[in-house]
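Protein modeling request. Please complete all fields; requests missing the sequence field cannot be processed.
Requester role: graduate student
Desired output: 3D structure, token encoding
Chains: 1
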Amino acid sequence: MDPLLSLGISALIVVSSLRLLREALHGLMEGTPFNLAPEEVGRALATAPGVASVHELYIWSVAPEQVVPSVHLVVHDLRQWETVLDARHTLLTERFGIHRATLQPEPGKFTVFSPSIPSTSYARR
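Delivered output (125 residues):
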């Protein structure tokens, strides 16, 4: 009975250790948080008035509770950038709990949509 119990406890320790190791490596590699879908964030950012599309979206987890995205927003009118920026920061904070973000504007005339990278390009629909 003792050997079976020891094997059961050992298996539990191995499974827990592998899960912890996976999370630690993911954090060290600054991966996208497991509970956050980049596609959803991209679509949400693309819904702002004045935003034509979103691309080059990267989301890093730099600490357990600190998520930092970087994204390029193609805007129709650069003169409206401050309004678009404020609205997008508010959206990221309220909807996704993201308090820091790097948002870069690009003029609409330079819009290039790349269907070969659907996970990083989001057009407003």
